[in-house]
Design brief:
single chain, alpha/beta, binds adenosine-5'-diphosphate
Length: 160
C-alpha cells in the first residue's frame, strides 16, 4: 500500500494546497496531511488545532485523507506514519530551487523516503498563504482563493 504525507504549515490552507491534496489522494492509497506545529522561521496566525481543523474540513469528503499535527523532521514523520513518500506542491519559479534543496537534504536523512512533487494548477500558481493574509488584512476579496469556512476564519481573526 502506498502511503504519503503532505507536510506544511498551512496557515491557513488555501485552494492551492487543497488542490494538491486532492490530486495526491488519487495517486496514493492513503494521504496524511501533516500540519507543522511550530515552523522555526514563520510566525503563525492560526493555532495548530485551527490549522488541522480548517484543512480537515476542506477535504472531509475524501476518505483516504487524514490530517494530523506534527513536529520534527518530515522524513521522520513519514516513517512514523508508515509512509514511503512525501508530497510537495510546486509553483512556477522559486519553489523548484527550495523544494529540490530540501528534497536532497531529506534524502540524505532518509534515503528510503522519496519526495513526489505535484505541479500547481495554473489557477493557483500565485497563491501563497502569506499573501492571502496580507491582502485580506487590507480588505481584498479572497473568496476565490480559499473555501468559505477558511475565508470566515480569516475574517474572524482579522476582526479580533
Ligand atoms: P511550508 O511547507 O514552507 O510551510 P506551505 O505550508 O505554504 O509551506 O506549503 C506546503 C506545501 O504546499 C509546499 O510544498 C508548497 O510548495 C505547497 N504549496 C503552497 N502553495 C501552493 C500553491 N499555490 N499551489 C501548489 N502548491 C502549493
Amino acid at each position: 500500500m502506498a502511503r504519503a504525507i503532505y507536510p506544511g504549515s498551512f496557515d491557513p490552507a488555501h485552494n492551492g494546497h487543497i488542490d494538491i491534496a486532492r490530486r495526491a489522494a488519487k495517486v496514493f492509497d492513503e494521504l496524511v496531511i501533516a500540519v507543522y506545529k511550530s515552523p522555526p522561521t514563520k510566525s503563525l496566525m492560526f493555532s495548530t488545532e485551527e490549522r488541522v481543523e480548517l484543512f480537515a474540513e476542506a477535504v472531509k469528503d475524501v476518505p483516504n485523507i487524514s490530517v494530523v499535527p506534527f513536529t520534527g523532521l518530515a522524513p521522520t514523520v513519514a516513517r512514523d506514519n508508515g509512509a514511503q513518500f512525501i508530497v510537495r506542491g510546486l509553483r512556477a519559479g522559486f519553489d523548484f530551487e527550495t523544494e529540490f534543496e530540501m528534497a536532497l537534504m531529506w534524502r540524505h536523512v532518509a534515503p528510503d523516503i522519496d519526495v513526489v512533487c505535484i505541479m500547481s494548477s495554473l489557477d493557483y500558481q500565485f497563491v501563497y498563504s502569506s499573501r492571502i493574509k496580507e491582502v485580506a488584512s487590507l480588505g481584498a476579496d479572497i473568496s476565490a482563493l480559499v473555501p468559505p469556512h477558511i475565508g470566515e476564519a480569516l475574517a474572524c481573526k482579522l476582526n479580533n
